Amino acid sequence: MINLLDSKIALIVVSITAFIIAVGIGLAIENTSDEKTTERYSSIDSGGPQTARRDGFYSYINRNESFEEQLPLTVETAIINGWIENSNCDLQNGRFFNKTKTPYLLGYDAKNELLSIYLFSKEKMPEPWIRSNTIDTNLYPSINYDHFKLIIHFKDPINACSINNN
């Protein structure tokens, strides 16, 4: 009986030791890897050649082509890529930037990180889109006409203009 008990304890000790060694090897490989992790990015994508139209039907762009545009994750990158500051900081949505011939604005928080995208259309759009108001056209001078808007936040916009936001 004592030999059996000793063998169970030995088995547990060997298992724990093997686990600790495996974790150590995993951490060593991760920390000494020469490969750099590629930076993640956000983008707008058409979803392939089949796209939704405003009338609710689907149509095909060039069947071999789809649309993807990477979004600048920081204000610095946005400015380098031709985005222009469009507004003062809106407490609920951050600062918006626009780019010529781009049908959306990008919102950045006080940490200069991508916060949201402001989609707009002159055409009447279904919910959850809402009609803009005079305040919107004053806040965002590049969209100085009545329009429908949809603001999509990538993170919580609370305290968007405060450096202490999350």
| CATH architecture group name of the largest domain | 2-Layer Sandwich
Q: What is the straight-line distance between the termini?
A: 59 Å
Identify the CATH class of the largest domain. Alpha Beta
Side by side, the strands of the main sheet go 5-6-7-8-10-9
Q: Describe the biggest sheet?
A: 6 strands, antiparallel
Based on CA inertia axes, which overall geometry fits? elongated
Helix tally equals 3
Helix content: 25-40%
- Mean pLDDT score, rounded? 78
**Which H/E pattern describes the elements?**
HEEEEHEEEEEHE
CATH topology grouping of the largest domain: Phosphorylase Kinase, domain 1
Show unreliable segments: none
What fraction of the residues are assigned to beta strands by DSSP? 15-25%
**What class do helices, strands and sheet pairing give?**
alpha+beta
**Alpha carbon gyration radius:** 26 Å
Overall domain count? 2
Give the total of beta strands: 10
